[in-house]
Amino acid sequence: MPTNSALGGTPKLYYFDIGASGRGENLRVLFADAGIQYDQKNLPLNEEWVAFKEDLKKSGKNPAGTVPVLELNGESHFGTLPLLRYLAAKLGAYKGKTPEEDLFIDSVSDFVADWRSSWVAVFLNEKDKAAYAQKELPNNVEVIEKLLGKYDGPYFLGDNFTYADILAYQIVHDEELLDKLQKYPNLVRLKDAVEARPRLAEYFSQRE
């Protein structure tokens, strides 16, 4: 099982102080499953975040001034999907076994990233919540359900647990749909498989 030795040190994660939701939680879930020890700085959505954002820009750690940011071995890295891909490469896990499999889970991950952007827009009242719930949200769930059917699950790549599974599980969690998946058998299988992973079962029991 991968340990911190594969990363060469102890990463430090910077993200908003918003509990078990948001992009940064995907990284925490991967760390939990892999048994990676990490430090974190939870940023409250106040003047502290504004100051941190400006420091990210001025220092060059992340000119975009966004989080999550991951510090590792004296360097700062940013971007949820790039970070997940990087960690998967370092750990030799959570990714496909062929270029075609990697392409597939990247396609899934890209779709989930677009879904999350819409979720954030609704959360920030930048998009009509009723219209989103009526059309866009059900369509997103249907797409993930179909994508999960490509391989003989429970994960997107069959028995191979990847960062795409984490991303999909987390957006369903953030949408508060985990107990509303009765019409989606593939998503139910994914949910059950993720929650049955020993380290994640322990992590989820502590985070809720």
From TrEMBL:
Species per Swiss-Prot/TrEMBL record: Basidiobolus meristosporus CBS 931.73
Taxonomic path: Eukaryota, Fungi, Fungi incertae sedis, Zoopagomycota, Entomophthoromycotina
Keyword Transferase applies: yes
Residue ranges constituting the GST N-terminal domain according to the UniProt record: 11-95
UniProt xrefs under Pfam families: GST_C_3
Gene3D superfamilies recorded: 1.20.1050.10, Glutaredoxin (3.40.30.10)
Entry keywords, A to Z: Transferase
PANTHER family for the chain: GLUTATHIONE S-TRANSFERASE (PTHR11571:SF150)
GO MF terms, alphabetically ordered: glutathione transferase activity
Swiss-Prot/TrEMBL GO biological process terms: glutathione metabolic process
Annotated InterPro entries: Glutathione-S-Trfase_C-like, Glutathione-S-Trfase_C_sf, Glutathione_S-Trfase, Glutathione_S-Trfase_N, GST_C, GST_superfamily, Thioredoxin-like_sf
Taxonomy, superkingdom: Eukaryota
Protein name as annotated: Putative glutathione S-transferase
GST C-terminal domain sequence ranges: 98-208
